[in-house]
């Protein structure tokens, strides 16, 4: 299956490395308006670099296109690719508004192509194992969950993250991973309450706290932090009537190495969670999506799931603005 990549930032390079090592895929070109980034991704994936994605599509004729562009470019790119008959793997979040998400989903449906959204946390083995244990009732009935996701403030090529009209901010871009995961565990959300603190200047940060009440009675407390001074960190705790389940980035690593970050431009624009496995969760995610295209099966994460996570994130943003709980699906809070 021929797969091309549009966007060669941190995620584009991550995709390129994984696709290049996959027997099921032929990495058929990468594209970025920044020629140096395109060349870096092409070198990592052993393929050709382009600066014009239309030229890449014409020359390479891919079956699947991975959209690793800034969030504000997702809608127009996905719709154009759908009209060209390309299956699409799009990085999260699906878009900035529900209207964008609906337009993307409808365009793919109308043109008979598949749309997958990269909510990769579902493919981390420790999170997948936790979801299975909760589904089997090993922690008992619905209870309370606490999840956190902390990383450095986006920098370098990630300047677009600082514009809320382009990235949506820390809830939309970072916390949405945990929003999707807790929804996959507890089902549909009922109400959302959120608060946020942020600062610009020479030492910027954005910190958000979100509480989600689910229809089944469970409560999830989520925190996300851009500006964390340490390494990328995740933690999760799920407490039910019969027990407590805990996991985290440190406890899931079989080998821990601490060193100074190197490179001509310092840190990457965004931090990517590391994995000790032979094939990382991004490999597992991409292979799963390609398998779904090949055999027509339903993915672990659907485009509708991505829309639902976006709806919760948008409700959290409204709650930050109003200081009041916000209901999901038009219900009164």
Describe what you observe in this structure.
The protein has 333 residues and is an alpha/beta fold. The protein has ten helices and 13 strands. 36% of the residues lie in helices and 24% in strands. The protein folds into two domains: 118 residues, NAD(P)-binding Rossmann-like Domain (Rossmann fold), CATH 3.40.50; 176 residues, Dihydrodipicolinate Reductase, domain 2, CATH 3.30.360.10.
Order of helices and strands: EHEHEHEHEHEHEHHEEEEEHHE
Count of discrete domains: 2
Q: In CATH terms, what is the architecture of the largest domain?
A: 2-Layer Sandwich
**What is the CATH first-level class name of the largest domain?**
Alpha Beta
Distance from N terminus to C terminus (CA atoms, Å) equals: 47 Å
Structural class: alpha/beta
Overall shape: it is: globular
Number of helices: 10
Which fold name is given in CATH as the topology of the largest domain? Dihydrodipicolinate Reductase, domain 2
**Gyration radius, rounded:** 19 Å
Structure summary:
A seven-stranded mixed beta sheet has the order 12-11-7-10-9-8-13. A six-stranded parallel beta sheet has the order 3-2-1-4-5-6, with helices on both faces. Helix 1 (10-20) packs across helix 9 and helix 8 packs across helix 10.
Provide the fold topology:
Blueprint: E1 2-6, H1 10-20, E2 26-31, H2 35-45, E3 49-50, H3 53-60, E4 64-67, H4 74-83, E5 87-91, H5 98-110, E6 115-118, H6 125-135, E7 144-151, H7 164-167, H8 169-186, E8 189-199, E9 205-214, E10 219-226, E11 233-240, E12 243-248, H9 281-295, H10 303-322, E13 326-327
